[in-house]
Amino acid sequence: MTKMIDFQTDPSRYRHWRVEYDGPVARLVMDVDENGGLFEGYQLKLNSYDLGVDIELNDIVQRMRFEHPEVKVVVMQSGKDKVFCAGANIRMLGGAAHSHKVNFCKFTNETRNAYEAAEEESGQKYIAAIKGACAGGGYELALACNHIMLTDDSASAVGLPEVPLLAVLPGTGGLTRVTDKRKVRRDLADIFCSIEEGVKGQRAKDWRLVDEVIPNSKFDETVTARAREFAAASKKPDVAKGIALGPLNRKITDNAVTYDLVEVDLDRAARRATITLKGPEGDAPADMAAFEAQGDQAYMLKLCRELEDAILHLRLNEMEAGLWIFRTQGDAEAIAAHEAVLGEDHWLAHEVRQYWKRTLKRVDVTSRSLAAFVEHGSCFAGVLAELLFSVDRTYMMEGEFDGDNRPMAAITLTDANFGPYPMANGLTRLQTRFLGEPDCVDAAKGHIGEALEADEANDLGLVTMILDDIDWEDEVRIFMEERASFSPDAMTGMEANLRFAGPETMETRIFGRLTAWQNWIFNRPNAVGKDGALQRYGTGLRGDYNMERV
Amino acid sequence: MTKMIDFQTDPSRYRHWRVEYDGPVARLVMDVDENGGLFEGYQLKLNSYDLGVDIELNDIVQRMRFEHPEVKVVVMQSGKDKVFCAGANIRMLGGAAHSHKVNFCKFTNETRNAYEAAEEESGQKYIAAIKGACAGGGYELALACNHIMLTDDSASAVGLPEVPLLAVLPGTGGLTRVTDKRKVRRDLADIFCSIEEGVKGQRAKDWRLVDEVIPNSKFDETVTARAREFAAASKKPDVAKGIALGPLNRKITDNAVTYDLVEVDLDRAARRATITLKGPEGDAPADMAAFEAQGDQAYMLKLCRELEDAILHLRLNEMEAGLWIFRTQGDAEAIAAHEAVLGEDHWLAHEVRQYWKRTLKRVDVTSRSLAAFVEHGSCFAGVLAELLFSVDRTYMMEGEFDGDNRPMAAITLTDANFGPYPMANGLTRLQTRFLGEPDCVDAAKGHIGEALEADEANDLGLVTMILDDIDWEDEVRIFMEERASFSPDAMTGMEANLRFAGPETMETRIFGRLTAWQNWIFNRPNAVGKDGALQRYGTGLRGDYNMERV
Which of A419, A469, A424 is nearest to A448 (CA)? Predict the structure, then answer.
C-alpha cells in the first residue's frame, strides 16, 4: 500500500455515493462500487467500505455545509437492495499494515464526528434510514447520525459482530456511542456486541439501538415524512445559495507539497516535516458579503482547506515523518483583520469558524510529535496562535538575530483564543493548558491584540522556551534530533495521554480510550496473526486463539 | 513465571519494607532486598520493585487502616542512601510475559489508588519524603501520595524516564497524575516525560511536580514537622486500638481454592472459574462493639477478605480462566442483618465499607468475562447484589425447578445499592446501569427490602435474562461455551469499553486510557522485541526502532 492517497475529490469523481438534493432535504445514497477499492486485492461487496469510500463521504459532508447551506436534513440510505452497509471491508483490513488500519480508523472517526456535529453546529440533521443488514461499521455510520430509523422485516437488523466474528472491536466509535450516546444498558450492550446476527425490529427499539422501527410497507413514506418534519422544525436560517469549493492548487514533489498558502517541506532523513503557513497578501474583505464573493479564494477559508489537506496527506502518506514543525510567515495584523470579518453573524462566517474548529481538532489528534517555531517574521495571531497551544512544544526567538531583519517574533492573541475553537474536551486550548493555574487564562486575555514578544509571551506561559541568537540553532536542533530518535510508539502513547487533560467527552473517549484498545487488539495475533480471525475470515474457520487472558 | 503468586503476607514475612509506628505518625520505609525478587533472573537493585514488593505494600496499606487506626499521617521514605526508588525492575519487565506485565501494572495501580484514597476515606494522609533519585515507578509511588517533599541537592530529582529510556509509558498512573492531579502544563509535562535525568530543586516545584523543596540540611526535621502538623490538623477521630487481620483459612488444590466463606471451582477445560459466596451461619452481631469483638472473624469482613484474595489469585495464577461465574448460597435476610450493623457510625464499620468498595472495584476492572447466576437458594442481597451490577451479565432462575427445593431465587436490594459503593466513575452501579433510564434507579429504590423474584427483578431491569426449568441449563451452557470461545483480547477491549459509561475520573482514565495505551506499547517490537528498548536496557545500546508512526 505505497501508492499516494489523495484526500481531494469532487462529485464528478464519486464512485460510491450519490447525493440527491431536493430543497431542504438531501438524500445521501451509499452505493459502493465493488471494483472501486483504493487498493488491489479486495472487492467492496455488500456496501462495505475502505478509505476511498470514506474520503468521498468526507467530501460530501464538507460540501453539504459550504455548497448546500439550504440543506437542513440529510437522509443516509443504501442504494443496494438487501444491505444497508456491511461495514469496513474485512479483506482490506486483513491485508493492511497496522499503521494503515489505525490511520484509516482515525479518519473515519473524524468523518463520523463531522456529520454527527453538523446538526448542533450548522442545523444539518442526519437521519439513517436502514433497510437490510446494517453491521459493524455500517451500524457505526448510523450511530453517528442524529436519528436512526429501521425497517421491520426479517432481513433488516443492526449489529456489531466484530467481536465474535473478527476478534476486533467496533473501532469507529461503535462501543462508545452504544454506551454514551444511545445509553444502552450494559448487559444488553454486552449481548448486542457478542452476537453475529444483530438485533431486529421492536427489540432494537426496546434496547435503545434505534429511534424508530417502521413496518416495511410504510418505511419509505415515513422516512420522507420524518425528513420533511425535521426540516420544517429546523431552526437553521434559510440560505439560498452556497459557495463552490474548487480544486486546490497543489503541487507534490519528492520533498515538498506546495499550495498557495501552505508549504510542506520534508526532510526524510531527519524524519521531519515542516509546515509553513503564509499570511494574507491582500487586504481583508470589507465584510462577509465581500468574503462570500471571494468564495473559496477568501484567505481564511483557503488557508484552512490547504492546511487540512496537508495534515491528511502527511498522516497517510508520510508515516515516518514523526515530527511536524509548524511555522508561519506574514503580517499578524493582517491575519487579525481577516479573522475579524468572521465575527459577523453570517452563515458562511459560521461555517468557516466551524471548519477551523474541526481542522484544529485534526491537529490535536494527530499521532506525531508536534512543535511550533515562533520565528522573526512570523504571524501567529488569533486562530493561527491556536496552533501554538495545540502542539506539544513551542520555541520562540528572543531578541535580535544576527543578519535577520524580519520583524521581531511576536504572538498576538485575539478573541479566537478564548472561545470559538474548543478542543474535543470542551475546553479552549488555553483553558486546557492552564488547568493548574486558571488565572493565567484571564491574564492572557488582558493582552488581547498586543504583539507579545518573547519575554512577555514567556511570562504569560504561552510558549515553552524562548531562545536568543546564541542558543536557538543548537537548542532546536537538539530537540528535533532527540525527538526523532525516540520510539514512535512511546511518543504516540505519551502524547495521547498528555494532550487531553481535563474533562472527557464522547469524542475524547473515542480517540483516547476506544482507539487505544483497538490499536492494542490490532497488534494481537488473535486478530491479525496468520491464524487470527481477520486472516481466516471467509474461510469458514474460526481464528485460532491463544486463550490466555491479558 | 509459572510458580503460584500468593497475595497473602504479614509483617513477619516482609523483606522489602518496614514500618515504624509512632502514635499518629507512621514511617513507611522502602528498603528493597536485592535478592528477594519474586522470580529468578533479576536483582532488585536501587530500590526497584517487582510484584512481590508491591504485595507487601498492599498488605501494609490494608493493615494500616484496620490494625493501626491511630495513624493519621504516613511518611513514605527510602531506607537506601542515594535513591528513593528506581521504579519497576526493568529486567523483570524484560523477562515477563505480556500478561504478567499487564496484570502487574493493574495490581500496582490498585495499590496506588488505595493509599491515595486513604486520606479522603479514612483520614490517613501519605507524604512522600524524597531523598535521592526518584524515577519512573518511584515517582509514581510519590505521585499517589497526598503531599510530595523533595530535598534540594544535586542527587535528588523526580523523573519519568520511561519514554526516552525504555520506549514504554509511565503506566502506573504516572502520565495521568501529571496532567490530572498535579495539573502540570502540557508542554512542560512533555519535556518532563522526555528527559532521562529528571527535574531537580526549585524547577520541580515551579513545574508543580512536587509540593515542597527543602534544603538538604533541613529536610529530615522539616518532614518530621510537617508530619506532626498534618497529624495535628487531621479530622480523623482518635481510635486507640485496631483489630488484627489474621491469616486466611485457605486451601488450594488442583481444581479449587477453598476458604471458609468462599469457594472457587476451576473447570480448566471449559476455561471457567465459579466463585461461590456463602451466607452467614450465625446471627448478626448486635452492634459494632460486638462486631469489633469478633474482629477478622466477623462475617462481613471475612467474606470481603476471602473474595479479594480469590480475585487476585485467579487474575495472576489462572490466566486462561476467561469466564468467572459468581454464585451465592445462603440466607438473604441474614446478609441484610449483618450488613445493617455497618450502618453504625463507627470507625470499623466505615473501614469495612471502604474495603468492600475497593474490592468491588477490583471486580469492575478485572479483565475477565464476568457473569452471575441467581439460583434458587442464593442470597444476592445488599452488597452482594452489587456483584450483579458489576458483572457483564446476570442469569436468574424463574419459577420452580424440578427436584430443587431450595428457596425461590430472589434479589434483595438494600441501601447498599444506592450510595455507599460507588464505581470508579463516581456513580453507583445502578446509576451506571440505568444511565439511559434514570427513573429506573428510583423505581428500584421503591423495592428496598423486598425479595424480588424473577419476574419482578426482570421488570425492574435488574437482571439480563430470566430462565425457567426448561431453558436454564441449555441457555447458560450455550452462554458459557460461547463466551469461552471468543478471542480473549477482543473480550478485554469490549468489556473495558462497555463497563464504564458515564463520567470519567482520574481512576477511570488510568484503567481505561493509560492502561490501554501501555498495553498496546507492551505489544510493540520497539519496546518488547528482541532489539527493543526493554531487552537492550543496560547494554549501552538503544532500542532498534521501526520509525513508522502509527
Answer: A419
Q: What is the pLDDT of residues B229-278, one digit of tens each?
A: 999 999 999 998 999 999 999 999 999 999 999 999 999 999 999 999 99
Tell me the mean pLDDT in the region A64-84.
Answer: 97
Q: Which ranges of B421-523 does DSSP label H, i.e. alpha helix?
A: 429-433, 439-445, 454-459, 472-485, 488-498, 506-509, 515-521
Of A180, A489, A516, the CB nearest to B501: A180
Which residues are registered as beta bridge partners of B274?
B265, B325
- Give B-chain residues touching A482 at CB under 8 angstroms: 164, 194
User: Touching check for A194 and chain B: CB below 8 Å?
Assistant: yes
- Strands A323-329, A272-278: pairing kind: parallel
pLDDT band at B2 (very low <50, low <70, confident <90, very high): low
In sequence order, what DSSP letters do the residues of B76-138 get, joined into one string? EEESSSSEEE-EE-HHHHHHS-HHHHHHHHHHHHHHHHHHHHHHHHHS-EEEEEE-SEEETHH
What is the rounded distance in angstroms from the CA atom of residue B404 to the CA atom of residue B355? 35
pLDDT of res. B1: 43
> Average of pLDDT values for A87-109?
94
- Residue spans of alpha helices (H) in B128-255: 137-143, 174-176, 186-192, 201-206, 219-233
pLDDT band, very low/low/confident/very high, at A2 (cuts 50, 70, 90): low
Domain ranges in chain B are: 14-233, 251-492
Note whether B487 contacts A: Cβ–Cβ < 8 A: yes
| Helix, coil or strand: residue A210 | coil
CATH number, span A251-492:
3.90.226.10
* SS3 assignment for B340-388: HHCCCCCHHHHHHHHHHHHHHHHHHCCCCEEEEEECCCCCEECHHHHHH
State pLDDT tens for residues A197-235: 999 999 999 999 999 999 999 999 999 999 999 999 999
Give the Cβ contact number of residue B359 at 10 Å.
19
ipTM above 0.90, yes or no: yes
Q: How far apart are CA A414 and CA A310, in angstroms?
A: 25
* Residue B514: closest CA among B90, B46, B140: B140
Helix, strand and coil content of chain A, in percent to the nearest 5, comes to: 45, 15, 40
- Between CA B450 and CA B165 the distance in angstroms is 59
Q: Mind listing the pLDDT tens digit for each residue in B89-104?
A: 999 999 999 999 999 9
Q: How far apart are CA A198 and CA A182, in angstroms?
A: 16
Please, what is the average pLDDT of chain B? 96
- Nearest Cα residue to A516 out of A496, A498, A532: A496
Exposed e or buried b per residue across A321-335, where buried means at least 16 C-beta atoms within 10 angstroms of its C-beta: bbbbbbbbebbbebb
The arrangement of secondary structure in B14-233, i.e. its CATH architecture, is: Alpha-Beta Complex (3.90)
SS3 A311: helix
A432 interfaces chain B, CB cutoff of 8 Å: yes
pLDDT at A243 over 70: yes
Written as nine digits, the cell of A305 is 482547506
Domains A14-233 and A251-492 share a fold: yes
The verdict on A516 touching B (C-beta cutoff 8 Å) is yes
SS3 assignment, position B40:
coil
Q: Taking 70 as the threshold, does the pLDDT of residue B45 lie above it?
A: yes
Residues of A in contact with B499 (CB under 8 A): 186
- Give, in degrees to the nearest 5, the angle at Cα B313 between B307 and B319: 125
Residue A309 has pLDDT above 90, yes or no: yes
Q: Is the pLDDT of residue B66 over 50?
A: yes
What are the distances in angstroms from CA A327 to CA A273, A298, A299, B179? 11, 21, 17, 27
In angstroms, the CA A367 to CA A365 distance is 6
> Chains A and B: how many Cβ contacts under 8 Å?
279
Considering the entire predicted model, what is its pTM? Answer: 0.96
